[in-house]
Here is the input.
Amino acid sequence: MHQTKRQPRKMGWRFVFLALLLAVAISGLVRSLWLDVYFIPSESMEPLLEGGDRILVSRTDFRADPIRHGDVVVFDGRGSFAPLGSGKGPLVDGAASAMQWLGLAGSDTTYVKRVIGLPGDTVVCCDAGGTVTVNGSALDEPYVFPGDAPSTQKFNTVVPEGRLWLMGDHRSVSADSRSLLGAPGGGLVPLDRVIGRPVQILWPLDRFAPVARPAPAPITQNGR
Here is the structure.
């Protein structure tokens, strides 16, 4: 009698284990192909995104409608904003990746910034009015953190093919393309490093809200 009672219990635990494995596999597939969750570790994109936010990121939005001026992008900064390797070893890197996958920690190599310059653009700071210009046109930037200047650092950059010039909305605290002008790559991020677009703030619950995509900016690209 005891044997017949234990057998269903064993089968039940096996079923639960297999169901958990299947759920993890499906979640991994969804997050690698369609939607992923990221943790915002800093204030560089305030007021749109705050430090501690968890955001849902669409990996497919830019396939149907390519990246345009003003878009907010999540990207892998290795080779541009961060070194290609962490130098901390596989165990530390593995633990960090697990925490990031669970949405419990930010990534040292994943960033969120706004697209200011597309391939072929000339991005300049600043004109006589203190405004960033793209191809000679002054940018209207209502998303910049209240009280911040568009930039206190001067620059004049032509964005190469296949690259993006990116800046944070909280300009006074954002480490972005401006910060890496003298580094290899000049702070210009390869298009193929873009992971996707933030579409929803998931956490904290009092900030639960969609992240709207801005309307196309009326900027004419050089030679186009």
Notes: The longest helix spans residues 2-33. The helical segments are 2-33, 61-64, 90-101. The CA atoms of residues 1 and 88 lie 55 Å apart.
